[in-house]
Amino acid sequence: MEHPELIAPACSYPDECDPLYGGQCRPERLLIEDQLRRKLRFFFMNPCEKFRARGRKPWKLCIQILKIAIVTIQLVLFGLSNQMVVTFKEENTMAFKHLFLEGFLASQDEPYAVYRQEDVRARVDFIIKQYLDLQNVSVGNYAYGSEGEEQSRLSVCQHFYRRCSIFPGNGTFDIDPDIETECLYIKPMSPSNDGPGDRSNMTLDFHRLVTIEIVFKLKAINLQTIRHHELPNCYVFTVTITFDNKAHSGKIKISLDNDAAIQECRDWHVSGSIQKNTHYMMIFDAVVILVCLSSVTLCTRSVVNGIHLQREYVAFVQHQLSRRVPWADRMEFVNGWYLSIICSDFLSIAGSVLKMEIQAKSLSSYDVCSILLGSATLLVWLGVIRYLGFFRKYNLLILTLRAALPNVIRFCCCAAMIYLGYCFCGWIVLGPYHVKFRSLNMVSECLFSLINGDDMFTTFSIMQQKSYLVWLFSRIYLYSFISLFIYMVLSLFIALITDTYDTIKNYQKDGFPESELHAFVSESKDLAITSCYKQGEEAAAVSALCC
To answer: Is the pLDDT of residue 192 over 70?
Structure first.
């Protein structure tokens, strides 16, 4: 059964019928094929040619240009706001380290640590004392956190082995590795007998001690946003100070971690036009959402039209020409640029909605919003390459990337096997003697830096020479890796892309090899400025003339 769209109409005049065509009109039969070629040629035209052919205005192009401007402005504004949030968190974390870690120096190279039992007790007492006297010692506007209607408490919890007897002299020990926890809770603004003096009731058994964790909550308000015409944010800081004695090496490392959460301020009043500016920003975000929805609609329509035209072409080739359409020709109808634009639109819509919630102080997911808006802006700017590809000189880069991509992926898969082998070898052999090889992630970063010629001398020089055999192995390892990847692998990678570039450049001079699809379309000689691409009532009047 023939495709319904490809059945030729009955003859208007008997003289036109030809028995060689099954009783169908010869001109009508040719007209069907020529109309399909004209549809295909119009589909692969650029926006300027489509405008000359049918007077179709390039709405997608205009929307993409508009979207680039507003999405970039939105990202910059959000980036400035996010920068203030990050700065406020970092500065408070540094303030907490100077307030609660006695003798802390920001420029010290070694991690903050203590080595004597009395120093551990003194540091714990100092933290509790600073916490209880926070209002008098800090220059910041802090308040104690709350749990319901009551203020939250500072907790001092020690984690230790259930049983641990160690005798290094004769090399014997008796240990039960199950961890037990003992905590002491201290309320702020409590009487002096509930303060640091009660800490002495907690016995610190350093033979069994694993960690000591001191946790407390503080509140603060970021007022610097007012100068940038934004409403202030209310923060809740959960400060965790950890005394790490897991290694039992005679060194207890002390670290401070600050987990910040943004909450909606309960009762606030700001004079001036800050609240109006917030409303203007939300209106701007709503405009971004509307533009992205329009872009999604137009691009989705183009993708659907391409799929329908693909089915029509496949049906024609199978029924009229009795051959199958190659997969590469079928994929010509699926425009990857449109799919990228649709993906960026959805990311931008989700990020804009989240940004509006953040501005309304309903949410505080800055990280998620940053990922959504950043990825959307990246894809939007990459989408501009499609329109630059309509120009011959700019199209060279796009064609080279597209042609070289399959070979580059296959080459990288082969090179990755060698790279991973060096990673595992360096981690297990050099890890104990080299700070840059302590973990697989660090090994990978170090080797990737060496490929790009970064930090080579330092990598060689900081290798410990405690074992001559390992030191000799490190030299063979590093020299062989650098020689293999810089002089061979990287050179082959560049040659692969250069060869593709030369091939595409020659194609632009001598002509590209035509696929079956483009050979079929090229048989249509109608120019874009003719009226052969008109639709509607004008199409019937000019179809015979165009044929």
So the answer is: no
